[in-house]
Amino acid sequence: MTEYAPGAMSSATQRVYLHIGLPKTGTTSLQELLWHNQGTLTADGVSFPGHDLGAHHRAVADVHPGRYGSWKEKRTPGSWDWLVEQARAFDGATLISSELLAPASPEEAERVVSSLSFAEVHIVCTVRDLARQIPSVWQENVKTRQSTSYPDLLAALRSAELDHTARLFWDYQDLPRVLRTWGAGIPADRVHVVTVPPRGGRPDVLWERFAGLLGLDPAKYETDIPHYGNFSLGYPETEFLRRINASLPDRFPWLQYARRVKDDFAAHTLSARSGRGSIPLPKQDQDWVHDTAERHIAEVRGAGYDVVGDLEDLRPVAPRGDEPASADELTPTEAEIGEIAMESVTDLLRHPAGSRRMMKRKPPQPAKALRLRQFVMRMSDQYPQVMAARRTYWRVRAKLGR
């Protein structure tokens, strides 16, 4: 297990930590915390580059356009190269974090790692037990416009044959495959598996493990911050959103969906409903999920990767006994769906689209020094001369520090 070592990042050796996911393992919360503490990280010798929270995701969409072609923001083209340039210019450690990296093919992963050949590359993978992952991933998939039902997802995962639904899930969640893909050609002790603690523990444990891996003192960083990217829905609300997804035309663009449906309607109207609870794993799926988790644990242990935390965290907890026999038993009635629809329409009439998103989910404004730093970073994205000046500044500061 990696422990916090004061001064671990004082070496002039350039390192790049690629945090590749897995999705739904605290990645968004970590990214928001890192962004909030960006200035402190830099002062401690760890760069978290980019001038907004979406910078790393756009960079991955840029380097993997075949996989994320619907991400058509104007700032996407060329964003991976500039992220690499910022890492190259920084004399210290750089952290790149995006769960969109998880499903990469061996060729895609090799291309990313090769672009960082100037540095010592470390792979960081946050992981959580599969019994919690499956329902959480289903809900997140629905929030990102997929329309596969929970019973259909579970049936696909139980099947011995991989269909499109199962393949899409395992592309992101097959832990041994993801680690083999990204760890190819990298020493096992530079492939770090950070486990998410079981439900009910202290909220900062994951951050403490993640910070310790980077050689940082976790207590030095502000963790009591608002989280803008995470919200949860109950099963009926998720099923209602899934039906909306199935009704939307294909020509409805992703960025419009993300803004109007996910970040506004789902995040406020649906998440505000009472009675939400975690989505259970049905009894008929518990045995195969437990067996799969045991296989993942054995493969991680056998590969000799650096485990930050405890592999026991990946073993599903004993079922409570009140889980439904199958996912079909969770399906809301048409009357329940109609009630959600009526309440949602009433709420939307009371609150015009976008009004609460702008009012309640506006990110905090950075301090003056951070705003200036972000301005310089934007200029370096556009002008090579500014990037060259930043390189000179960092090199001089590093020499003075030694």
From TrEMBL:
InterPro entries: P-loop_NTPase. This is Sulfotransferase family protein.
